[in-house]
């Protein structure tokens, strides 16, 4: 059995269409939407609406951890616009391309920049969306937990720690624990390029210690200090920043 795993697709529909080649199934751990590309400030919803110069500035502020100033800049740019309508229209356009690129079968969960309420409109036959739910793939039980935790970035799909922990608990014992964000381990949460810690989940870490899945797979941290480590019997793996690599992580058994 061969499963390909991707995360942080961020608009890369071209590579996504090839991500399932040679695999029995594709697993996607979220963040389909590209709001702003930190490597190329001309790409994404933000520069499409406001231009590259404003994108340069907001990246500069966020990288310097001047989040209040970044939010104030964003508020000034959105003034007089229907922010929700503009974003939703752009997201719908991206989702139409991305969901059409998914092979069958695909098992997917949400990232922190996704908009879950739109997914039922675009998920085609052969794509199974799971959140706080389990699926059997090739005789192994995969558990899925989507979304992110509250952060200074205030991304669209951040939920409370209590809600997140409840979804983790609902999975019970699984062979492969799949999430968008990592367990709360410093080496797995630190982004060496952004030079900051991203939010990891204590509930995921507790579940790994308590139930010892074979694998814990996640993304979210684009340039992690550690891409993998063992916690007890569990192999924890950041499957990679698919938007930039275009290469899925491979799980075979």
From TrEMBL:
Highest taxon above the source species: Bacteria
Gene3D superfamilies in the cross-refs: 3.60.21.10
Residue ranges of every copy of the Calcineurin-like phosphoesterase domain listed in the record: 1-224
Cross-referenced Pfam families: Metallophos (PF00149)
InterPro entries, per the entry: Calcineurin-like_PHP, Metallo-depent_PP-like
Name of this chain's protein: Metallophosphoesterase
């Amino acid at each position: 059995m061969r499963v390909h795993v991707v995360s942080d697709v961020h608009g890369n529909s071209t590579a996504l269409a090839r991500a399932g080649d040679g695999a029995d199934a594709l697993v996607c751990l979220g963040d389909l939407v590209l709001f702003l590309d930190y490597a190329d400030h001309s790409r994404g919803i933000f520069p499409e609406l406001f231009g590259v110069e404003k994108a340069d500035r907001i990246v500069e502020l966020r990288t310097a951890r001047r989040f209040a100033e970044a939010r104030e800049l964003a508020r000034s740019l959105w003034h007089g616009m229907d922010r929700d309508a503009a974003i939703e229209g752009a997201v719908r356009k991206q989702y139409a391309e991305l969901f059409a690129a998914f092979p069958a079968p695909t098992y997917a969960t949400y990232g922190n920049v996704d908009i879950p309420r739109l997914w039922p409109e675009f998920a085609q036959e052969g794509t199974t969306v799971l959140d706080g739910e389990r699926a059997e793939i090739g005789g192994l039980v995969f558990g899925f937990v989507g979304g992110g935790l509250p952060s200074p970035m205030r991304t669209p799909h951040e939920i409370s720690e209590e809600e997140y922990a409840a979804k983790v608990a609902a999975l019970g014992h699984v062979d492969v624990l799949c999430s968008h964000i990592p367990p709360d381990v410093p080496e797995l949460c630190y982004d060496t390029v952004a030079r900051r810690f991203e939010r990891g989940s204590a509930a995921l870490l507790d579940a790994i210690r308590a139930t010892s899945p074979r694998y814990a797979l996640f993304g979210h941290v684009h340039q992690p200090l550690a891409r993998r480590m063992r916690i007890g019997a569990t192999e924890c793996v950041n499957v990679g920043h698919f938007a930039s690599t275009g290469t899925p992580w491979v799980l075979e058994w």
